[in-house]
Write a structure and sequence with these properties.
Structural class of chain A: mainly alpha
Number of strands of chain B: 0
CATH class of one domain in chain B: Mainly Alpha
Largest interface: B-C, 88 and 73 residues
Strand content of chain A: under 5%
Strand order of the largest sheet of chain A: 1-2
Mean pLDDT of chain B: 82
Oligomer: heterotrimer
Number of helices of chain A: 27
Strand content of chain B: under 5%
Order of helices and strands of chain A: HHEEHHHHHHHHHHHHHHHHHHHHHHHHH
Helix content of chain A: over 70%
Largest sheet of chain A: 2 strands, antiparallel
CATH architecture of one domain in chain B: Up-down Bundle
Mean pLDDT of chain A: 87
Chains: A mainly alpha (636), B mainly alpha (189), C mainly alpha (100)
Shape of chain B: extended
Helix content of chain B: over 70%
Radius of gyration of chain B: 23 Å
Chain lengths: 636, 189, 100
């Protein structure tokens, strides 16, 4: 089993090195795409085997080698494959495999094809370290690794010019990449503080040691650690107020958005909370957990409201990701860790599918993102239409779809907990989710064929790519059916969350309420956007000028707020400090250099080769010595 | 009283003579005034009771050194005035004046070294030459011998430096001039 | 009464005269004269202090200075003759060969 762990971990790394070392400078090589996809698939197979093994025999724990061993600090390269991490491994490797295959088609015409695969595989490797590490230090390494890969991949088209958009605060991929990276640094500081606190008070970073020691720590300390770790999770999972980077990260290539900014990396924060459930589940940190749940519910609603009016197809999907992350945090905060993990996995499948579908549309529309310019595309893009439809159904949480089971469970657990405000927000958000996801589908695939007037000639993606997406579609439909199996599997490791009798009794009613709301949302979207001819959608200029619409479209002016109150003052301060630096520090250094130079230049004239002037200088020196003698005798 | 008069006569005379030495353009005048000044300084030595030193001053400086200068001058053209380009005479006098001022201030201050013990005190009832001889040949014997060797070395050096090709007139024979310059060039190379 | 200060001030003045000579003279022979002046000035100071303290050391030093001066003149004049043979002049501005 140990070898399988290493295969799962290092196959993506080998792929990354293969692409990065041997093909970095060469033009597009199909071999790279093929080899890397195969290696990720190998990792997936290893993960499946490991999952079967774990289900049967329990967790696998391997220690590869000693990494840091100084004094009392002992951090090995250790990997823990238990129920939680194997779930994550399965999700990561499966989505990665499909995204890799998808990318061979999507990036076919990109000149940096090889570079893309080097980064993408490196990301998978970092993500595997993140989920498999058996200590917080390894987790942090993976955490930073995915951050770097995210930065590299968002800024993949770094050569794109800066330009301003109507409603989009991001001006270029490199800008978005820096924004994501810097925001994550802010949050990672919190995470680092949490890790330091753990080390100082426990003396180890191994999960098992730390979690066993938790009950002996003071309450205030536990709360501090929980807050610090959650700040890290907020950054990675783009929770309010560190959420702006996620929508701007859509500047990256679509496969990247699908893999990193929907299915895997952004869920790392949720994973951290789930992984640290012994900490967050403690009675002492109940306040923090409630805060997590409340923030999750708030973000779910907040992001969904922004998605209602967004025009950018990728931005809508990104906002829905944000919203679903809010659901996951709500579940994790309420103590329903296994439900959060279940939703995480289900979401990864249908969201990746949705994103890849959106990528197909984009590809067909020559990278046009505005849904107002699309419409009626189901004729030309049947495959993508079906996939996106399935994904949207799953996202909206309609019965038999994956999203139905997982999201319903979250809403139920909120009800069960007695947090009716959270419950109400989540229910309303479910309706909004259905509306905006179908708004997008209808805008894109139904209604008038607006693209024709603009001179687009859409065509569907390569056949093999559509075939490769099928597993995601199947899982998006069927993953929820295995909820009980998953429950049985995962609760060996995670605390169980049982609904009370009362909730069980009300469950069908609650589910129906959600379904009705979702169907209402879909119906409104259908009425408004799917019509043709006389019923066709028209822009309502007046409504678009209204305050609410503007507020939502401008993301509640949060990016503008950040720009004006953080970025610009910081820029001004930096410029001032730069000037001070130039005047004081540089000035001082220059003064020394110039002083030496000038002194040399002036005193060089003494050395004019004339003995007479040398004698004069000697005379001056003698006089100075005599003066010194006089003065010192007077003073002394 | 006579000591007072003698000191001032000697002092003023030496100062004037040495000023002529330093300021005069003519080498002959300079040298003559230098010799005269040195004679007067020996007078100061006599006043100070350093009879032997005064005699040595007369013999060595006025007798030997000035004779040496006089002979050396025969090699140079002493009738012409020396032309010296002065870059900034003010500076020279400023520095010199400052030096003089400092010394005057320094030396006109009362001497406060009462507790100094004479290392080799003047012996009463013995002539100066005898006293000097006693100290010089006992306590200062080694420096004295070293000085003697130094004088010997200087003499040999003087002979060799000045005596080379003494039989050629360097200013009149151009052939030798050229020969010299060729040699010098070689040396330079 | 003539005190030691008188001699010392005279010595200082003569030294300054020699100093001025060293500073302003360009002719090497004249420079030698100026140094002789300075040496004599110092001799006066030594003799005066020796007499003031009733010590013979001052005179001893004066002797050695005279010895040094004599040897300096011997060697120096030899060098001057060589320089004159080479350059035909003793002016420092003329014979300077170093490039500043």
């Amino acid at each position: 089993m140990e070898n399988l762990v290493y295969i799962a971990l290092f196959a993506p790394f080998v792929g990354s090195l293969f692409a990065g070392l041997f093909f970095a400078r060469s033009p597009k090589t199909h071999l790279v795409g093929f080899v890397n996809s195969t290696l990720i698939a190998v990792a997936f197979i290893a993960a499946v085997t490991l999952a079967l093994h774990v289900a049967e025999h329990g967790a696998v724990h391997v220690t590869m080698m000693t990494w840091i061993s100084i004094g009392d600090l002992n951090i090995p390269f250790g990997f823990l494959v238990d129920e939680v991490s194997v779930t994550m491994m399965l999700v990561v490797t499966l989505v990665s495999t499909i995204v890799h295959i998808y990318s061979t088609g999507y990036m076919n015409h990109d000149k940096s094809y090889n570079r893309f695969f080097a980064y993408l595989s490196a990301f998978v490797f970092s993500m595997m370290i993140l989920v498999m590490s058996d200590n917080f230090a390894g987790l942090f390494i993976g955490w930073e690794g995915v951050g770097v890969c995210s930065w590299l991949l968002i800024g993949f088209w770094y050569h794109k010019e800066d330009k301003t958009f109507e409603e989009n605060p991001s001006i270029s991929p490199s800008w978005a990449a820096n924004e994501a990276f810097i925001m994550n640094r802010v949050a990672d500081l919190g995470m680092l503080v949490g890790i330091f606190l753990i080390y100082w008070n426990v003396g180890s970073l191994q999960y098992d040691v730390v979690f066993n020691a938790l009950p002996h720590l003071a309450d205030g300390l536990l709360v501090s650690i929980a807050i610090a770790l959650f700040i890290g999770a907020m950054g990675k999972s783009a929770q309010f107020p560190l959420h702006t980077w996620l929508t701007d990260a859509m500047e990256g290539p679509t496969p990247v958005s699908a893999l990193i900014h929907a299915a895997t990396m952004v869920t790392a924060g949720v994973f951290l909370v789930i992984r640290a459930n012994p900490l967050f589940g403690l009675e002492a940190v109940h306040g923090v957990s409630m805060f997590i749940a409340s923030l999750g519910a708030f973000v779910a609603f907040y992001a969904a409201s922004m998605a209602l009016s967004a025009r950018d197809i990728k931005r809508i999907v990104a906002l829905s990701t944000l919203s679903q992350l809010g659901y996951m945090f709500a579940a994790a905060g309420l103590g329903a860790y296994w439900i959060a993990l279940f939703h995480l996995a289900a979401h990864a499948f249908f969201k990746a599918l949705l994103f890849l579908g959106a990528g197909n549309v984009m590809h067909a529309m020559d990278d046009e993102l505005d849904i107002f310019k699309m419409g009626g595309m189901k004729k030309v893009m049947m495959g993508s239409y079906v996939y996106m439809g399935i994904a949207s159904f799953a996202l909206a949480g309609l019965p038999i779809m994956a999203g139905f089971y997982s999201k319903d469970a979250i809403i139920e657990s909120a009800f069960n907990d007695g947090s009716f405000i959270i419950w109400a927000i989540l229910v309303i958000t479910a309706g909004m989710t259905a509306f905006y996801s179908f708004r997008q589908v209808f805008f894109t695939f139904h209604g008038e064929e607006r693209y024709k007037a603009l001179g687009f000639h859409p065509h569907d993606m390569y056949k093999y790519v559509l075939v490769a997406m099928a597993p995601l579609a199947i899982l998006a439909i069927s993953f929820g059916w295995f909820m009980n199996n998953f429950h049985e599997f995962i609760t060996k490791n995670l605390p169980d969350y049982e609904m009370s009798e009362h909730t069980e009794h009300l469950a069908p009613f609650l589910g129906t309420l959600v379904i009705i709301l979702a169907l209402t949302g879909i119906f409104i979207a259908w009425k408004k956007y799917a019509g043709k001819g006389a019923n066709a959608w028209k822009r309502d200029e007046k409504f678009e000028q209204s305050f609410i619409y503007q507020l939502v479209t401008n993301q509640y002016y949060i990016p503008k707020f950040y720009d004006e109150f953080i970025v610009q003052p910081y820029t001004i301060a930096s410029k001032k400090f730069w000037e001070i630096d130039k005047a004081v520090v540089d000035g001082f250094v220059d003064f020394i250099g110039k002083g030496a130079y000038k002194t040399g230049d002036v005193s060089r004239r003494m050395q004019n080769g004339n003995l007479s002037s040398y004698l004069n200088w000697m005379g001056v020196g003698a006089l100075i010595l005599v003066l010194i003698a006089v003065i010192s005798s007077v003073i002394g | 009283m006579y000591e007072f008069v003698a000191f001032y006569i000697f002092a003023i005379a030496t100062t004037i003579l040495f000023l002529i030495t330093v300021m005069s353009k003519n080498v002959l005048y300079s040298m003559t005034s230098l010799a005269a000044g040195m004679v007067l300084i020996s007078g100061l030595f006599f006043l100070l009771g350093a009879d032997f030193l005064g005699v040595v001053q007369l013999i060595v400086y006025v007798g030997a050194v000035m004779a040496l200068y006089a002979f050396a001058m025969m090699f140079f053209d002493a009738t012409k005035d020396v032309k010296e380009k002065q870059q900034n005479p003010q500076l020279v006098f400023l520095l010199g004046g400052l030096m003089a001022l400092v010394f005057v201030i320094m030396f006109s201050a009362p001497v406060i070294g009462d507790n100094i013990q004479a290392l080799y005190p003047v012996v009463d009832g013995v002539g100066n030459a005898q006293a000097v001889g006693m100290v010089l040949f006992t306590k200062y014997l080694v420096p004295f011998e070293v000085a003697a060797v130094m004088l010997l070395v200087a003499m040999i050096a003087g002979i060799i430096l000045a005596g080379k090709k003494m039989d050629y007139s360097l200013t009149k024979c151009e052939a030798i001039d050229e020969e010299m310059s060729v040699e010098l060039e070689k040396g330079e190379e | 009464m003539i005190g030691v200060n008188h001699y010392l001030v005279l010595s200082g003045l003569l030294f300054s005269i020699g100093f001025i000579g060293v500073l302003r003279r360009k002719n090497l022979l004249m420079l030698f004269f100026a140094t002789e002046v300075m040496l004599n000035a110092v001799n006066i100071a030594f003799a005066a202090i020796g007499s003031y303290y009733g010590d013979l050391s001052g005179q001893m030093f004066a002797f050695f200075i005279i010895a040094v001066a004599a040897s300096e003149v011997a060697v120096g004049l030899g060098l001057l003759i060589l320089l004159y043979k080479k350059y035909g002049s003793l002016d420092l501005d003329v014979i300077s060969s170093m490039k500043g």
